[in-house]
Specification:
single chain, about 500 residues, mainly alpha, 2 domains, 5-stranded mixed beta sheet, 5 strands, alpha-1,2-mannosyltransferase activity, transmembrane helix, EC 2.4.1.-
């Protein structure tokens, strides 16, 4: 350039030649990425946090027993003095680990492409699809390990070495994957195709194994085992116990089983919900670009289909992968994208609000009602409350929602560990409710003060209720879709 300028000097006058500025983004220092704007990043993060806080307070229903019996009840028992914090602040704090994930999803799309215009649309609509997913709304703020697994999976994707990514870091993403596996060992199922993809793409495979896979994996297992040994006060490898009881001994089958095709014919369609047409359309458009994500989705569904015990929440971690395809679909609709987005939003809003505010809320409402018995127990002249739950075991939370040491009991159903002719207490009760009650309470002095059960049981035990002066004191709505032993309402009977 200096040689050109020297040839263009006339006489003693020195003048630089003004070169035309190119408008092409190829020569621009600004890559056009809106997320380089710090203010925009802050706005996205703040919006996600506020949105999920609203989400927390608008989910007032129960989903599965594990959200209480594998989290809140355990922590309440361990730290009883802080029991109030466990429940009273749960709605405000349980969603803080999740909101920023959506900002990360938005950034991932920006970081794995070069075409800024296409990129912005795809990232924006992927972000929109994830935010309006009814199942994410229903599940993400619950105290389930599946929610944590999904959260950590999204964060790990940010550092995963995808083609074109500017933030890839093997150590960071593998550390997060290890954390997900420690939280829930089945996370390895979701990540197996991506780990193999990384291994296949890596030039120095031996270094990847010896410097990343093995050290990070071993360190995670050692730290997890150390923590578990401290709390269990004995040598415990939780990951091994998880596999032994659920896979080798088939304990999970004790809690129900489904046909092998259930995830393909029902489970996946329910979880992805109204996004399904956009997902299928996106698969045809972005198969090459996101084939590793699609492989992870299909692989996970196939592996989980081999296990008899199936639940919707088990495949929740694949939902973020699906949203890449949904966002691609909306970005390609062009003139129809806004009407399609409106339909998608409304179609998700209805099930999100219904399942969050109406469906299966009775088992939480009844605990709030029973909490008033704490005041009664403090009155010396009043008999101490004694509550018996005649419901399928673990139907309701327990002391984490009551906060006082009133006597409570429910029908137990510990898994069959190989005992011949084993029948749990709940099954014995439902085989003959009257016989069980008369056998368990032969004297009136041993009767509980309160009975809690679903309305479908009332007819079967009406003789016992009348003969022992039990009167209905409350009826609480539970669901509009009663099924089997789970009724539409919950009754509370008190002995007079």
């Amino acid at each position: 350039m200096e040689n050109i300028r020297s040839r263009l000097r006339f006489g003693n006058k020195v003048e630089d030649v003004k070169l035309r500025k190119r408008k092409s983004q190829l020569y621009s220092k600004d890559d056009g990425n809106p997320l380089n704007n710090g203010a925009l990043r802050v706005r996205i993060a703040v919006f996600c946090v506020l949105f999920r806080l609203i989400n927390c307070f608008l989910v007032q229903t129960s989903f599965v027993p594990d959200e209480y019996w594998q989290s809140l009840e355990v922590s309440h028992r361990m730290v009883y003095n802080y029991g109030y914090l466990t429940w009273e602040w749960k709605a405000g704090i349980r969603g803080f680990s999740y909101p920023l994930v959506f900002a990360f999803l938005y950034k991932i799309l920006h970081l794995i492409h070069h075409d800024t215009v296409y990129l912005l649309d795809t990232a924006k609509w992927t972000f929109f699809c994830h935010m309006c997913s009814w199942f994410t709304w229903f599940c993400c703020t619950r105290t389930l390990t599946n929610s944590t697994e999904t959260t950590v999976t999204c964060l790990a994707l940010y550092y995963f070495p995808l083609p074109g990514s500017k933030t890839h870091s093997s150590k960071k993403y593998l550390s997060l994957v290890s954390l997900a596996v420690v939280v829930r060992p089945t996370a390895l199922i979701v990540w197996f195709p991506l780990l193999m993809y990384h291994f296949w793409q890596e030039d120095n495979k031996l270094r990847l194994i010896t410097h990343n896979y093995l050290p990070i994996g071993v360190l995670a297992v050692l730290m997890s085992t150390g923590i578990d040994c401290v709390f269990y006060e004995k040598w415990t490898l939780v990951q091994y116990n998880f596999i032994k009881f659920n896979i080798f001994h088939g304990v999970a089958d004790f809690y129900g089983s489904h046909p092998w095709h259930w995830y393909f014919t029902q489970g996946f369609a329910v979880v992805i919900g109204p996004h399904l047409p956009f997902f299928l359309h996106g698969c045809t458009l972005a198969f090459r670009r996101y084939k590793v994500f699609l492989a992870a989705v299909v692989w996970t569904l196939i592996i989980y289909s081999l296990l008899p015990h199936k639940e919707f929440r088990f495949i929740y971690p694949v939902l973020p992968f699906c949203m890449f395809f949904c966002g691609t679909s909306l970005a390609h609709l062009k003139a129809w994208r806004r009407p399609a987005a409106t339909v998608l939003l409304v179609a998700n809003l209805v099930p999100a609000l219904y399942t969050g505010l109406i469906h299966q809320r009775g088992t939480l409402d009844v605990m709030s009602h029973l909490q008033t018995l704490c005041d009664v127990s403090s009155v010396p002249t009043h008999p101490l409350p004694d509550v018996l739950f005649l419901m399928p075991c673990h139907s309701t939370p327990f002391y984490s929602h009551v906060h006082c040491p009133i006597k409570m009991r429910f029908l137990e159903c510990p898994p069959d560990l190989g005992e011949e002719g084993y029948i749990d207490e709940a099954e014995r009760f439902y085989d003959d409710p009257l016989l069980w009650l008369r056998t368990s309470f032969p004297y009136k002095s041993s009767l509980p003060t309160h009975l809690v059960f679903f309305d479908v049981l009332e007819k079967d035990i009406s003789v016992f209720l009348q003969g022992n002066n039990f009167m209905r004191t409350a009826e609480l709505f539970h669901t509009q879709f009663p099924e089997g032993r789970v009724g539409g309402s919950i009754f509370i009977y008190e002995r007079h």
